[in-house]
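=== RUN LOG ===
request id: a7f3
mode: sequence -> structure
chains: 1
length: 221
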Amino acid sequence: MSSQPTKQALLDEVPQEFDTDTLRFDGLRGTRAAHLSAEALESRLAALEPAPKDEGTLDLLVARTPDFGRVLHERVTLTTAGGMPGDRFALQTKYGPEAQLATMQADHARVIANGQPLELHGDNLFLSLDLSAENLPVGSRLRLGEALLEVTPKAHNGCKKWAQRFGLAPMRLNMASHFRSRRLRGLYLRVIEDGECALGDRVVVVSRPRSAAPHTGTTRP
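=== RESULT ===
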């Protein structure tokens, strides 16, 4: 059995045309025919309307099951003790509170998926909100339905599963110096106050760290 490329190799060593279907893992797999080239990905991202900065909506709620499946919820109660009930990360303490809720910007997720189901990304929350580091520095707090959430310092950089499902271009663009702060792969949130949330609920930025530069206007994703 041939050895698998490391995450670092996927980022900067293997050629762009590397066959990601050779990557081995348990769980859902993507369709290589849906993968976007680096040029197409950047072009489609540049064409997006600016995401809202202070108030958006919850577009999708997903739990990752212990058998690597997905459960789509219409309504859940998020808790400080475990994040999303029934989620694999909540059931395995090794991930820790800084990785309670994997979160993606919904329009980015749609572009990258290119017709594949959004839940294939493996994130819990999909928000119509600007998740960039400029707009939501570490420590920023969001009110989602009744729950209060906080941006954690843990980086959300993707893995070989994400590379197989969506190709090398998104993973590499996410880590590129000119794009890294935009958090194409998303971010992690932890629950500060328990509360219920449902599809379509408002998500409101209630605070940002005082040291963060004030934002003005909107930025293109």
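=== NOTES ===
The longest helix spans residues 38-46.
The helical segments are 7-12, 38-46, 88-91, 106-113, 160-166, 168-175.
=== END ===
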